[in-house]
Design a protein that fits this description.
Chain lengths: 576, 643
């Protein structure tokens, strides 16, 4: 895991390495400074020698300047290294997500990918900064201070060394106790946030069902749990400070006694005593910092793990480097079965046999959950078939380069998404080099040109994220226009005109017939009128093809089709 | 309208903590502090104890910084003068110091532990009050406030409050005490040197203030950049499947790289400044030490300042080191306090939002006929009655029939922008009343008025002859089952989600409702059946399946009146027909309001109202309206489109 993440440092290796290097410099200076200060007192002030004061004063100023320089540089490099590391981390994750196939995306879920790319990266970035700064600083401080203390007085330092293990044991012991509680607190916090979020979003449901009290009870339960766990954790943490103080004060008392004797005995100066105490403080602080870093790293470990999952995920569907062009818009399903889990026991599509000639219009209908969408998603190879073969343009889809295949197969997804940008920006998704005329043409076919021209900025109208500022029907037509700009050999509309009225729907189909007759058109619809004139209509039920035929044939023979038809016309003649 | 757009930039639970932006201070500092005090008031006894403990702890802390000087000057030096060193005095003072320290340590331990509980209790109270209050707010509040904004009061704002109470305040207090004690000792030792130290400290604070301010500006930039990057990630990952279909990965990566690099630059700038603050402070402190040493040494040696001994200067130098740290701490914590107060103010703003007013007196009770007279029943009877208190103290029972009438109703979400004009309508008991019309025509608004999510501006709405203003909202809403287009399922099992409609429903009731909504089959195909846990609004279900669950939820409620607001919009027509049949049998003899886009959904309604720009322009059943050859006819024949 660490190796994987360290791989993201790359061009920031210099900064990453310079940070601890300068940090060492800073620490060295920080340990020398108390030493010089002691000299200044002993030889300057105590002796009443102005010359010595100047001498050590200047040395001290130089040390301070060096320490400042090292400190500033190490802080600077730490910041650039951490920001750069986070950038690379985001970059690598985002790029890998772009390689993901549909099933990779399904496995993680969109929300989880987003959290990993945002919150988790921030956590790891903070941890990284901690590591290159303080995780280096504290042990260095510890080592140098101990060395300095030894040079001053071995006996007293031994006393300090004797205290250290007890303090370390206490600090880390507290953390071991606290950590699982904190872990629980964070999980409970997520739960609390979830309750709040669901309540804000679903406030209408809560109010409509008069469930306010029920929700308040639910919330109070979680809130109480946070109160208990958090109090418990923090009460334990509260031992941290006193443990430190106990060590510091204990040492001070001991050192005062020993020191006094030595000073009187002439083996130590008062300045040395002061320095010793300063070093002791530094050592203890370093230990304290180490214990804090330990907590931080443990917390970041979860995030790091989640990030690595993204980085390690291999797209389970890769096309060939190069492959043939798609010859035409013919499609053939040969004994195709499919399971999202790639498990023949959890099958979504079974035994699909289907031949579609190039240029045909094919309608697909079936009830909610009958796997209509699943069926068509196999054609541009968004998923791989679990069993059987799928041929497009006479060749197995696996023989094509993915990009070639998907350029030839244009699909308007059920959950159609527009992106923030102008209408033109959105249309250019279909063809980055599309001319104005081509865009207008595509919009005319999709019956979108009319309403676009009525918008204040026409084709330059800004679309909000998700296309929330145009109506559902308008959004669908823009998505169709975008798909048309690809000039595909096969066009798939997955319930893409559900919010468009029947007349416009008919005009779109009419335009398809007239202007793109060679393109194979596959239309999934709930409205019978949308598929009525298709060359063949496929009726899906529970992942199987229930029947294939023309409108008249199915109306005469297929029960599902009849039911759907009559549920929509209800006695009255279907209009148009 | 009902589907308020939610734009949330931040994904996941807790927001990142490193990006704190300063500058957003509380507007009414005094008021906010006062209210915080009110929350602390119940803990008065404990707080007094905490304050005294902090005082003890700080005094012992300050004592430790003075101790060295005293030790050297008053004990070690005299011993050195003795012919035969006598350590008994030293031993005594060390024991005394040990006692002082121990008291200080114990005080620290206890005030921390007490304060933790106080802070957490206050926070729990704040949270609980906030949530309970939020439940009582009118829908309007949720329309006008961003979802992320409300959320952050439970996360960021309470967290800053916690830090302030449990950490910042005690630290401020003890730093303050240390500063005072040290300052007093410094003044005692040498006034001129103290003035010098104060001048230097003032300069130090200026410098750090400047750097801090500059860093703050970059942190704002970093925050904005981070928002942009995260927003971009959210938009693109949400549309990842479209990206795949259009081979758009290359362009997406390019745009991402640009934003990502911008974020890197801003983050680096902000953190460089934040990181160099500490070394600057520390070394300014070192510089101060040298200056004081030189000036002090000069004063003492040259004899300009009488009474300033060399020992005093050594002690003074020691004090300056104990002085800079707490001053820095205070400087940093002032910022934390300001932020916490701003957070507290935002919390109080939420708590100050006026509650939904509910002054109705008419209640809903189970009823039954005893000897032909309608009487209140103490068990579920499938029959309900309105219980209306009369002036003479008795009650009048009116059987709930589901007769809803609008008289000249006007309504505006915002003053001056009337969205419903002169609505007159009557739904007779047992009728199926449908509303059709374009988005924004006011269909959903009408149903929002029936359940009093909003109150009407003008006119009257009668429910079984009773003005709905007189009905307790709780009971009014209990009498109405609603299925909205946005399903809003909760994180819980499928079974619990359906049971949400009626908490007392048995497992069998739940399954029956699911069968009625045609949801049973797909539920059984879920990995754990009815015990499958749904997460994030049922993300693993299709939109159609979510709607079927929402319908089951309403069905188990078995309400006297049902409102279906685009409840079947994403279900195929055949399944819809099955669901409709189930609902029709459930609701036989009861009133149903249906809002739909799809005309096939409303065809069999008793009355269809066609709405346009807040007016009812046509009404009648399907055949009437077709015969009228008006708007409905045009819609039906596809000459017009609904959007």
């Amino acid at each position: 895991m660490v190796k994987k993440l360290a791989g993201c440092i790359r061009e920031y290796k210099r900064d990453t390495l310079l940070t601890p290097l300068f940090m060492v410099g800073e620490v060295v200076m920080e340990t020398i400074i108390p030493f010089v200060m002691a000299r200044l007192i002993d030889y300057g002030i105590d002796m009443g020698s102005m010359g010595a004061i100047w001498k050590y004063g200047i040395v001290l100023v130089l040390c301070a300047l060096l320490s400042l320089t090292f400190g500033v540089l190490s802080g600077r490099f730490a910041a650039t290294a951490a920001a750069g590391f986070a950038k690379n981390l985001r970059h690598d994750m985002f790029y890998n997500v772009q390689r993901f196939s549909f099933s990779n995306i399904d496995r993680f879920s969109t929300a989880s990918i987003i959290t990993r790319l945002t919150t988790d990266v921030t956590n790891v970035q903070n941890a990284f900064m901690m590591i290159i700064r303080i995780a280096v600083r504290s042990p260095m401080m510890l080592i140098f201070s101990v060395i300095m203390a030894f040079t001053i007085n071995v006996k007293v330092t031994m006393l300090l060394i004797a205290i250290l293990p007890f303090l370390a044991a206490a600090l880390f012991g507290i953390i071991r106790l606290v950590f699982p509680v904190f872990d629980r607190v964070f999980k409970t916090y997520d739960k609390l946030n979830n309750v709040v979020r669901e309540n804000i979003r679903g406030i209408r449901v809560v109010k409509a069902y008069v469930r306010e009290e029920h929700e308040v009870e639910k919330f109070n339960g979680v809130s109480e749990k946070i109160f208990l766990d958090f109090s418990k954790a923090e009460k334990l943490i509260a031992f941290n400070g006193p443990a430190m103080q106990l060590a510091i004060y204990g040492f001070m008392i001991g050192v005062s006694w020993l020191g006094a004797k030595m000073i009187v005995g002439g083996t130590m100066t008062t300045g040395e005593l002061v320095s010793l105490i300063t070093y002791a403080m530094q050592i203890l602080m370093a230990l304290m910092m180490l214990s804090i870093i330990f907590v931080m790293l443990t917390l970041a470990r979860t995030s790091a793990g989640r990030i690595c999952e993204i980085l390690d995920e291999e797209p389970d569907l890769t096309g060939r480097e190069s492959g043939p062009e798609v010859a035409d818009g013919s499609i053939e399903f040969k004994d195709v079965s499919f399971s999202y889990e790639n498990d023949m026991n959890k099958i979504c599509l079974s035994d699909i046999d289907l031949t579609i000639r190039s240029g045909e219009v094919v309608g697909i209908i079936g009830s909610t959950g009958s796997s209509k969408t699943t069926l068509v998603q196999l054609i541009p190879r968004l998923y791989d078939v679990t069993a059987g073969n799928l041929l497009v343009g006479g060749k197995n889809v696996k023989e094509y380069n993915l990009q070639t295949l998907r350029d030839a197969v244009s699909m308007v997804l059920q959950k159609n998404v527009l992106f923030s940008g102008t209408i033109k920006d959105n249309l250019r998704w279909g063809d980055p080099d599309a001319t104005e005329e081509e865009m207008v043409m595509a919009c005319q076919l999709a019956q979108a040109d009319g309403f676009i021209r009525e918008l204040p900025d026409g084709y330059d109208t800004w679309i909000e994220q998700g296309g929330t500022n145009v109506s559902g029907g308008q959004r669908q037509r823009l998505c169709i226009a975008r798909a048309l700009l690809k000039k595909p050999k096969i066009l798939i509309l997955d319930d893409s005109t559900s919010a468009v009225d029947t007349r416009t729907d008919a005009l779109i189909r009419e335009a398809f017939r007239t202007y793109i007759p060679e393109t194979t058109k596959i239309i999934i619809a709930q409205r019978i009128s949308s598929v009525q004139e298709a060359d063949q209509i496929i009726v899906m039920e529970n992942g199987r093809i229930d029947a294939v035929g023309t409108h008249e044939e199915l109306l005469a023979s297929n029960q599902i089709y009849q039911e759907a038809y009559y549920s929509q016309v209800k006695g009255g003649a279907l209009s148009e | 309208m009902s589907n308020e757009k939610e734009r949330t930039r931040k994904a996941g639970g807790r927001p990142p903590k490193n990006v704190r932006v300063k500058g957003a201070g509380a507007k009414d500092v005094k008021g906010t502090i006062k209210r915080l005090m009110n929350y602390l008031a119940p803990f008065k006894g404990r707080l007094i104890l905490v304050t005294s403990l902090i005082l003890i702890s700080s005094v012992s802390g300050a004592a430790s910084s003075l101790f060295l000087g005293v030790l050297i000057d008053d004990f070690i030096e005299p011993i050195m003068q003795m012919a035969v060193p006598d350590f008994s005095q030293l031993a005594k003072v060390l024991v005394l110091m040990a006692c002082i320290y121990l008291t200080g340590i114990l005080a620290t331990l206890f005030y921390n532990r007490i304060m933790v509980v106080v802070a957490q209790s206050v926070l729990k109270k704040v949270r609980d009050e906030m949530f309970a209050h939020m439940q009582k707010l009118a829908i309007r509040y949720f329309d006008t406030n961003h979802y992320g904004d409300i959320m952050s009061r439970y996360t960021n704002d309470t967290d800053t409050l916690r830090q302030m109470m449990a950490q910042t305040l005690p630290q401020l207090f003890s730093s303050g005490t240390t500063i005072i004690v040290v300052l007093a000792s410094m003044i005692y030792l040498s006034i001129p040197l103290t003035v010098l130290v104060l001048a230097i400290v003032f300069f130090m604070l200026k410098v750090t203030g400047k750097i801090g301010g500059k860093a703050g500006g970059f942190f704002v930039k970093q925050q904005t950049s981070l928002g942009e990057v995260n927003g971009y990630i959210e938009e693109m990952v949400s549309g990842q499947k479209v990206i795949k279909v259009f081979n758009h990965e290359g362009k997406t990566k390019e745009d991402f790289d640009r934003l990502n690099e911008e974020l890197r630059e801003n983050a680096a700038s902000a953190n460089v400044l934040a990181n160099i603050l500490m070394p600057i402070m520390a070394n300014l402190g070192n510089l101060m030490y040298v200056i004081v040493a030189i000036v002090g040494g000069f004063l003492a040696i040259s004899g300009i300042s009488a009474g300033l001994t060399l020992g005093a200067i050594a002690a003074f130098l020691q004090l300056t080191r104990s002085f800079t740290m707490p001053v820095n701490q205070v400087a940093q914590q002032v910022n934390a306090v300001a932020m916490a107060l701003a957070g507290a103010e935002r919390i109080f703003n939420l708590l100050d939002e006026p509650e939904e007013i509910d002054d109705g007196t008419v209640t809903l009770v189970d009823a039954q006929y005893v000897d032909g007279v309608l009487t209140e029943a103490d068990h579920r009877t499938e029959m309900w009655a309105w219980k209306e208190p009369l002036e003479d103290g008795t009650f009048r029972l009116t059987r709930l029939r589901g007769d809803v009438r609008f008289f000249d109703v006007d309504f505006a979400y915002e003053e001056g922008k009337t969205v419903l004009h002169d609505i007159n309508l009557y739904a007779k008991p047992g009728q199926k009343v449908a509303f059709v019309g374009a988005t924004g025509a006011g269909k959903t608004t009408i149903t929002n008025l029936i359940n009093r999510f909003y109150d009407i501006a003008d006119g009257r709405i009668l429910y079984d002859g009773i003005d709905i203003k007189n009905i307790r909202k709780y009971d009014l809403r209990r009498s109405l089952g609603i299925v909205l287009q946005d399903t809003n399922l909760f994180t819980a099992t499928v079974r619990e989600n359906i049971r949400y409609g009626r908490l007392t429903a048995s497992d069998a009731d739940v399954e029956e409702a699911a069968k009625l909504a045609n949801a049973h089959d797909f539920i059984m195909r879920l990995p754990e059946g009815y015990e499958t846990v749904l997460e994030s609004d049922g993300a693993n279900l299709s939109q159609g399946q979510r709607q079927l669950l929402a319908i089951a939820r309403a069905a188990v409620n078995d309400p006297p009146v049902l409102i279906l607001d685009e409840a079947t919009s994403t279900i195929d027509t055949r399944t819809e027909a099955i669901v409709q049949r189930g609902l029709d049998s459930l609701m036989e003899g009861r009133t149903v309001f249906v809002i739909a886009h799809r005309l096939s959904t409303v065809q069999n309604a008793n009355v269809i109202m066609v709405l346009e720009h807040g007016h009812i322009i046509e009404r009648g059943d399907h055949d009437d309206l077709i015969a009228q050859k008006g708007k409905y006819y045009q819609l039906y024949t596809g000459a017009f489109e609904l959007e």
